[in-house]
């Protein structure tokens, strides 16, 4: 019996990076997973690898109207949705003085607004499922500042707060909401941020986090093992922010 056996999940930005790792882990533990992404090519390739317990839907998370359709397609394919992983995210690095306003709006649209849209769209399905777990991927950048990350930090701090509001409002329906705060993970985003993937070994655990370790935390929050955890900031950073 898998740890999320029979549950239906949606993972945004699930075609590559950490999202793809979460999709694989949830399926391996018995869930049926709808994963969405703007990358049709990567989505189709992963769908072919995963088989019948996975369904890829092309979706830009900023498209409000499409959210309803995504939930509808998930229900039709697998049943009521009880896990939502708001994972899709982007970064844009620049100093405040020259940060393009359009880039700021785009980052906030994807990282923040879309988390609101996803939570809003999924609640009716989770109510019908009689319970739910919303997992919002923030960052340690949503807990403390970092230079040249004004939009990213604004959006990820917002996710930290929005998650707490969701926990307060939705607890009465046995719907939990938690945020995850990873330090740098070796994905495409990390390579871009670090200019080539050089490891910054200033963590007490003296190594970089892997996406599989983040998936372990996603799995825990998705499963009933975390049944009394809601409104939490789940930090996974090798002790970096303990300093
Ligand atoms: N990589 C890190 O170091 C790190 C650290 C902390 C938090 N995070 C967060 O983790 C999440 C995943 O990051 P990652 O490193 O796997 O990134 P990634 O760039 O490797 O993958 C992101 C995925 O999201 C998709 N995507 C981008 N814009 C989208 C949109 N508008 N609609 C739907 N899909 C979209 C991309 O196509 C891609 O498949 C993000 O929210 C990110 O902010 C990443």
Structure description:
The protein has one domain (8-242): NAD(P)-binding Rossmann-like Domain (Rossmann fold), CATH 3.40.50.720. A 7-stranded parallel β-sheet has the order 3-2-1-4-5-6-7, sandwiched between helices. The chain is an alpha/beta fold. Mean pLDDT is 95; it is low at 195-199. It has 7 helices and 7 strands; from the N terminus they run βαβαβαβαβαβααβ. Strand 5, helix 5 and strand 6 form a beta-alpha-beta unit. The structure holds nicotinamide-adenine-dinucleotide.
What key phrases describe this protein's structure?
binds nicotinamide-adenine-dinucleotide; 7 helices; seven-stranded parallel sheet; Rossmann fold; 243 residues; alpha/beta
Task: Summarize, please.
The chain has 243 residues and is α/β, with parallel strands linked by helices. It has 7 helices and 7 strands. Helix 1 (17-28) packs across helix 7, helix 3 runs parallel beside helix 4 and helix 4 (101-129) packs parallel to helix 5 (150-170).
List the helices and strands and how they pair.
Elements (H helix, E strand, L loop, with lengths): L7 E5 L4 H12 L3 E6 L2 H11 L3 E5 L5 H15 L4 E4 L14 H29 L2 E6 L12 H21 L4 E8 L5 H7 L16 H12 L10 E4 L7
Parallel strand pairs: 1-2, 1-4, 2-3, 4-5, 5-6, 6-7
The structure holds nicotinamide-adenine-dinucleotide (NAD).
Nicotinamide-adenine-dinucleotide binds next to helix 1 and helix 6.
């Amino acid at each position: 019996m898998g740890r999320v056996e029979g549950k239906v999940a949606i993972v945004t930005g699930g075609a590559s990076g950490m999202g793809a790792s979460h999709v694989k882990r949830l399926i391996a533990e018995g869930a049926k997973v709808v994963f969405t992404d703007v990358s049709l090519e990567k989505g189709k390739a992963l769908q072919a690898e995963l088989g019948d317990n996975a369904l890829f839907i092309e979706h830009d998370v900023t498209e409000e109207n499409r959210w309803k359709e995504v939930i509808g397609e998930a229900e039709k394919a697998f049943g009521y949705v009880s896990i939502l992983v708001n994972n899709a995210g982007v970064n844009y690095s620049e100093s405040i003085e020259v940060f393009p306003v359009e880039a700021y709006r785009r980052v906030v649209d994807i990282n923040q607004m879309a988390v609101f849209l996803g939570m809003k769209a999924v609640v009716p399905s989770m109510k019908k499922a009689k319970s739910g777990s919303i997992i919002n991927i923030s960052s340690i950048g949503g807990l403390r500042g970092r230079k040249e990350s004004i939009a990213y930090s604004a959006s990820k701090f917002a996710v930290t707060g929005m998650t707490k509001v969701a926990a307060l409002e939705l607890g009465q329906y046995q719907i939990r909401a938690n945020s995850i705060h990873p330090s740098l993970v070796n994905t495409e985003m990390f390579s871009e941020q670090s200019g080539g993937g050089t490891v910054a070994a200033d963590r007490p655990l003296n190594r970089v986090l892997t996406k599989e370790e983040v998936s372990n935390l996603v799995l825990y929050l998705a499963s009933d093992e975390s049944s009394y955890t809601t409104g939490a900031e789940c930090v996974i950073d090798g002790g970096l922010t303990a300093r």
